[in-house]
Amino acid sequence: MAKPTGFLEFTRETPEDRPLLERIKDWQPVHLHLPDGRLQNQAARCMDCGIPFCHTGKVINGMASGCPINNLIPEWNDLVYQGLWQEAYDRLSKTNNFPEFTGLVCPAPCEAACTLGINDPPVTIKNIEYAIIEKAYEEGWVTPTIPAKRTGKKVAVIGSGPAGLACADQLNCVGHEVTVFERADRLGGLLMYGIPNMKLDKNLVQRRLDLMSASGIIFRPNTHIGVDVPAEQLRDEFDAIVICTGATRPRDLAVDGRSLNGIHFAMDFLHGNTKTLLEMGDGKLETPQSPISHLPSPISAAGKDVIVIGGGDTGTDCVATALRHGCKSLVQFEIMPQPPAQRAPDNPWPQWPKVYKLDYGQEEAAAVFGADPRQYAILTKRLTGDEQGNLQAVETVEIEWVVGSNGRPQLQEISGTHKKWPSQLVLIAMGFLGPENPVLAQLGVAQDARSNAQAQYGSFMTNVEGVFAAGDARRGQSLVVWAINEGRGAARECDRYLMGETHLP
User: Fold this and answer.
1) Please, are residues 104 and 130 in contact by the beta-carbon 8 Å criterion?
2) Three-state DSSP state, 21
3) Each residue of 354-374: pLDDT tens digit?
4) How many CB atoms lie within 10 A of CB 486?
5) Residue 125, helix vs strand vs coil
6) CA-wise closest residue to 198 among 307, 312, 290, 317
7) How many CB atoms lie within 10 A of CB 15?
8) Which of 78, 184, 335, 365 is deepest in the core (most CB within 10 A)?
9) What is the DSSP letter of 149?
């Protein structure tokens, strides 16, 4: 595979990002890309390892190890090295419906499991993946997939996020008539409104949606199943239903002062910002040095002391967005301790490496304010405001994690570490609890203790015949790549249910 000595000849090289202080002045993509020749050198680093852990897609210690959709990574790395880009695209398309999305927003568990990564920096799999799909679009290799004949079966997919789109794409390929329902005014779910434009260009999302429409998939935005349309109506109109509504019910902050003005869920902040950009049409706002108060964005960070509570990807996106609004100051609270610089002994390869790193938002904040905005091992105690009910400050205490009597870690406050932080805007990014869509209750779908739809992984059938569930609505909050995995799996089992057999992978 690739060049046998490539990993000895070439060092890992990733494309430069746009300059930090330049890119925070707009909403354009952060990442740049390597030219073909240098990408081919990176593909040459792929080793002919006996077991390519990069595409195993196992869950180890609660985290993905390798690619959850089992991308045939060594094969398309070899093809890229040889300059056979179209063949590489054909191979990539066998497992991934949307490489342009995973190539930009996936945290790349494939790279974390790369065999070369045991001793050296791993292969730049994610960048190569994105380069393949973009070249395919440029060369005209990506075309609508119109089935030769239709089966006469109709399937309703509820939700147009990555799970719903992957499911719809697969079902359409085998000839079913697929209708995708989306409650928002625009399609794409998390891809459209949950991830900021500088991380995932909405033109790329729309490009894929247009392609799917041309393939024969019917999209119905502004249609909230369970609210605008009774879920039972779908049972009458369709032969099968696939629930891909996501896990959109946010985890709240149960502290005194929660009802003050100026406290918002992260997704409300991000959704409103992206909606404003899309309505403006050009994807640009004035620079942070200029006033932006006239913009119709529902929640603005301009001129405010901003605190983001939560340290995941959503929290990072809030940090980056607040910077572009022109916030006065910025702090991000993490309840967990700071990760080590290198893998801990209990976190060996090929597990996902739980190590300290700066994501794009923290890099930008450090450039503006001089330091990583994250405060680790810190607990929010209360929120205080003025007489008009407006947020003024956040009170915290430092904590340490100790082993409790039940053998599980539990937090313990450290005396004398109480602190008050000035703030006029708090963004809660503490994760999600499960689906909020009423469709589950209306269809009588059984739910687990976390309110997720009960459906066995691999079969995806709920307790209601002909009703399937996939993605975050079934597994809980997870990665985009897991959503694609489940959407494809649910499509396979839905096809089997409708036709008695299936040729879908």
Assistant:
1) yes
2) helix
3) 999 999 999 999 999 999 999
4) 31
5) helix
6) 317
7) 16
8) 365
9) S
Residue with tokens 């075309």: 143
Q: Which two tokens stand for residue 3?
A: 């060049």
**How distant, in Å, are the alpha carbons of 239, 367, 438, 472 from that of 226?**
18, 46, 5, 18
DSSP 8-state symbol, 116: G
Three-class secondary structure of residue 354 per DSSP: coil
Report the SS3 class of residue 269. Answer: helix
pLDDT surpasses 70 at 35: yes
Q: How confident is the model at residue 164 (pLDDT cuts 50, 70, 90)?
A: very high
Closest CA to 320 of 451, 199, 183, 146: 199
CA distance 438 to 78: 47
Written as six digits, the tokens of 184 are: 């928002």
Residues belonging to the chain: 505
Domains and CATH numbers, the chain: 6-139 (1.10.1060.10), 154-249+433-499 (3.50.50.60), 252-430 (3.50.50.60)
Q: pLDDT digits over 38-53, tens only? A: 999 999 999 988 899 9
Using the structure block, give the residue that is written with the tokens 């003050």.
Answer: 260
